[in-house]
Amino acid sequence: MTLFSSEEIIQKTINFVKNELKDAEGGHDWFHIERVYKNALLISEGEPVDKTVVALGALLHDIADSKFHDGDETVGPRKARLFLKTQNISEEIIEHVIKIIENVSFSGGNKTQNFTSKELKVVQDADRLDAIGAIGITRAFNYGGFKNRKLYDPEIAPNLKMTPSEYKASDAPTINHFYEKLLLLKDKMNTETGRKIAEERHRFMELFLAQFYAEWNGEK
């Protein structure tokens, strides 16, 4: 049996993810994964975590996002498990990474999380940071365009009480997504580093929305 070092496994995982997501939607492609990976490494510097688990969890967390697989949340964990099985990684690490993938998602904010670990908290913060700020804004509108959604409709109010299934099925204007998810993430951060970064990105989104409404209403 060939044993790979952590560095080799991470590089093989990077190569695998790049290939799997080469044709992905722009907000959920390799560059999204790379940003989350970098965020996770940054956050983990101040946390007592297994950095290999954090790295693998970050790299594989969106290997098959359910929104691109008819809402099937089993595709990503299954694909990740099949890959990790080829890397001669311990079953304990594999299970931990799979649990991270299964529990990292926002899912409308109303999903019961059945697992927690310091590593999950780091990856979750890293993923949430990529959903807010300047990158979060561009990702939201990129996905809205991908789904042919309206930018904004003053007559369609945000729905803050959606179930996970309602959240997945929603076709509301992109601006609503700020209130239904993006502006909620600052207060859901798990780590001190995540909270500090989120504060600044949150303020940027508030400034953007103020400017958006002013322009929409012909005020400036």
Topology:
Layout: H1 6-20, H2 30-44, H3 51-60, H4 75-85, H5 91-103, H6 118-129, H7 133-146, H8 164-169, H9 174-180, H10 192-216
Helix pairs in contact: 1-3, 2-3, 2-6, 3-5, 3-6, 4-5, 5-6, 6-10
Biggest sheet record:
none
Q: Count every helix, treating DSSP H or I runs of 4 or more residues as helices.
A: 10
Extract low-pLDDT stretches.
Answer: none
Q: Report mean pLDDT, rounded to a whole number.
A: 91
User: Tell me, what's the shape?
Assistant: globular
Helical fraction: 55-70%
Kindly, what is the distance between the CA atoms of the first and last residues, rounded to a whole number of angstroms? 67 Å
Q: What is the chain-wise order of helices and strands?
A: HHHHHHHHHH
> How much of the sequence is in beta strands?
under 5%
Q: Decide which structural class fits the backbone.
A: mainly alpha
Radius of gyration from the alpha-carbon trace, in angstroms:
18 Å
Task: Tell me how many strands there are.
Answer: 0
Provide a descriptive summary of the structure in words.
The protein is mainly alpha-helical. The chain contains ten helices and no strands. The model has no long low-confidence stretch (mean pLDDT 91).
What attributes characterize this protein structure?
220 residues, mainly alpha, globular
Offer a quick outline of the entry.
By secondary structure, the protein is mainly α. The chain has helices spanning 6-20, 30-44, 51-60, 75-85, 91-103, 118-129, 133-146, 164-169, 174-180, 192-216. It is built from ten helices and no strands.
